[in-house]
Amino acid sequence: MSNDIDTLATALYVTIDDLVKTRPDLAPRRPVIGFAPRLTDAELVTLAVMQSLLGFTSETRWLRFARTHLRHMFRYLPKQPGYNKRLRNAANLLTAAIRVLAADTSLWTDDVWVADSTPVECGRSRETVKRSELAGWAEYGYCASHSRFFWGLRLHLIATLGGLPVGFALTGAKADERETLLGILAADPRLAGDRPGQTVICDKNDFGAGFETELAETGLRLLRSARKGEAERPGAALFKPLRQVVESINQTFKAQLDLERHGGRTIAGVTVRVLQRILALTAAIWHNDRIDAPVHRCLTAYDH
């Protein structure tokens, strides 16, 4: 296989099609009697991943491009309202696909994780904050990395050093990162349970004896830098170079996958667009791993 967008799309389509056949419960529910969709669920997921990798933040512009350049791959392409509705209903399938692809890579067994969160801005004007359907979930928060306030959500991510997403959660901007990390692990006990001695690198603000105790009970070893006035912690020499990895992963989401230009206006809309970008990164890493690419988290070959 080669590292071009058509080859990745073909391999992804076959994998998702097999997944839907094996797990029909993952497909969106449809009436027993009625019209069968002309665009299959596997084609829908493939189309959504290609949209993210090719950098189209507008669904309307993406479908215009697809009708002109991708007719050789898709027999039928829906209009924007239909595409949007199908995609929002496919959130469970996208979530399952992320796990299936991630577990099918050599990076899945890495014994070091990095964990952090990054802002997902959802609005800037006061009128947007007052009228948005996201009010109550989205909230004002502060991003220390960029010294800015924002209104929106946070994407909490656990990833390998190679950038492969292992666990994730989307929360309000003020959610406690420690509680969210523990929540991700509690939602999937096997994630840490199958990896005794796993190391997770966190921010220095992820502190507390209770937090470390709970992590240790799940089998994880916490590595973080010492806070002001705190004694030097084990592994300090390794922390700084490895800690930058998670910042690089967040930058991939922001710069190459346009995370903050998601365009979602509802809970379902924002959720599926974030899942779409996580799946796109996972699919690229999965494909690069299968073709033995020198750099797994490289999207350049798929953005044109």
Please provide a written account of the structure.
There is one protein chain. With 304 residues, the protein is an alpha/beta fold. The chain has a domain at 110-260: Ribonuclease H-like superfamily/Ribonuclease H (Nucleotidyltransferase, domain 5), CATH 3.30.420. Helices cover 46% and strands 15% of the residues. The chain has helices spanning 5-22, 41-53, 59-69, 80-89, 91-103, 126-131, 177-187, 189-193, 209-217, 236-256, 267-290; strands spanning 112-123, 139-143, 148-160, 165-172, 198-201, 220-223. Strands 1, 2, 3, 4, 5 and 6 form a six-stranded mixed β-sheet that branches. Helix 1 (5-22) packs across helix 5 and helix 2 (41-53) packs across helix 11.
The level 1 CATH classification of the domain at 110-260 is: Alpha Beta
Distance between the termini: 17 Å
Radius of gyration: 20 Å
CATH topology of the domain at 110-260: Nucleotidyltransferase, domain 5
What's the CATH H-level homologous superfamily of the domain at 110-260?
Answer: Ribonuclease H-like superfamily/Ribonuclease H
Mean pLDDT: 90
Instruction: Count up the helices.
Output: 11
Q: What is the tally of beta strands?
A: 6
Q: What characterizes the major β-sheet?
A: 6 strands, mixed
Oligomer: single chain
